[in-house]
Specification:
The protein is mainly α and 212 residues long. The protein is built from seven helices and no strands. The protein is elongated and about 85 Å long.
Amino acid sequence: MRSKLIDKKQLLAALLCCIGAGAAALLAGNKLPFSALCGLICGGLGLILYRLSQKRRRKKELDMYEIDMADYLTGVALLLYAGLNLWDSMRRALQGSDLRRPLYRDLGLMFDGIDNGKYDSPVDAVEQLATERGSPAMSMLAGAVVQNYKKGAGEIAALFQELSVTARSNRKYLCMKLADEATTLLLLPSAIVLIALIALLLTPAMLTLFSI
């Protein structure tokens, strides 16, 4: 469950870091209390790093939702205008898509669950998926499905077309934001190299100063 503060994978990562650091300290000839302290510190760092990696992975999935939703909504709108009903349009819009991408993967699993009777109704399936993922793009899709499921196909087609325009604007904004973040990240290696060069130049001078 996402509501848990620490899941089993996080505990396992912290435990492995604790054991590894403690064992390394013991093998180096340190005493048991110091080794235990090293293990606890490394376990805490391992837990923090694991959480950061999971947070970054989660953010990447949400960004991919935003990027792919525009094309998916456009495909659904075209199929609705062609005369298909809502659910057939949503299914067929997945054909030919890369199921490794989060949006298409989750929608594919959702339709499999609908076919297997996992959900009370297709509307419940979309609502549950939107709640579990917490993606603004998925919430937008779920809102359109829930509010307009019983309306005529023409009205739903126009709605999905409007949503696809909105999704494209959101994707454009997201891409600009990611480009700015990438530019900032490119400066980090240069900053690290600069700090290393300064330290390399100052080290002989500091050693000479303290030797005096």
